Amino acid sequence: MSTPQDPQNPYDGNTPQEPASPYGAPTPPPDPSASQYPAAPQYPTYGQESSQYPAAPQYPAGQYPQAGQYPAATPYGAGQYGYVYPKNSLGVWALVLGILGLVACGLFAGIPAIIVGNNAKKAAAAGEANNGGLGTAGVIMGWISVGLSVLGIIAWIVLVGVAAVNGGTSSY
């Protein structure tokens, strides 16, 4: 018998037990000797013929397959897998030139905005680009900048003509 001053064994001869799992008993690990996969197929070695695959077609000397039996070649400029990249830069340039024409450059950016914008709209109509709206916006802003530039030139000519008639002096 032990006294309260003696050290106590926390297990007191009993080993702790795991609580029961609410999910049922665990499944045992698979037997490593049992194979989970089917056996690999046996391939013929060099020189043996296999009836699994058809033989390659043999053509007489000088005769080749007819046209149309090969896949079509990808067009020039096509990327990988025959994908043709869209010409979206035309629409972006038309928009940039249109904004420049309105803000600062007038005719010098407005006329190129109209030309590049029309090319962008043609590329979108042909399916070569997917941003025809930017081309249209560039054309509209190009025409507005050309119109404002022409009005500015006419106003400048009128002011110079009025100044020439008055002799360069003001009547104030």
Tell me briefly what this model is.
With 172 residues, the protein is an all-alpha fold.
Question: Explain this structure to me?
Answer:
By secondary structure, the chain is mainly α. It has a domain at 88-165. 41% of the residues lie in helices and 0% in strands. The chain has helices spanning 88-105, 107-125, 132-165. The chain starts with 87 loop residues before the first helix and ends in a 7-residue tail after the last helix. 15% of the residues are buried.
Secondary-structure blueprint of this entry?
Elements: H1 88-105, H2 107-125, H3 132-165
Helix pairs in contact: 1-2, 1-3, 2-3
**What class would the helix/strand composition place it in?**
mainly alpha
Helix fraction bin: 40-55%
Q: What is the terminal-to-terminal distance? A: 129 Å
Q: Give the uncertain stretches in residue-range form.
A: none
Q: Give the amount of beta strand, in percent.
A: under 5%
- N to C succession of SSEs: HHH
By DSSP (H or I, 4+ residues per run), the number of helices equals: 3
Largest sheet: none
Q: How many E strands? A: 0
Mean pLDDT: 77
Tell me, briefly, the overall form. Answer: flat
* C-alpha-based Rg, rounded: 43 Å
Name some characteristics of this structure.
mainly alpha
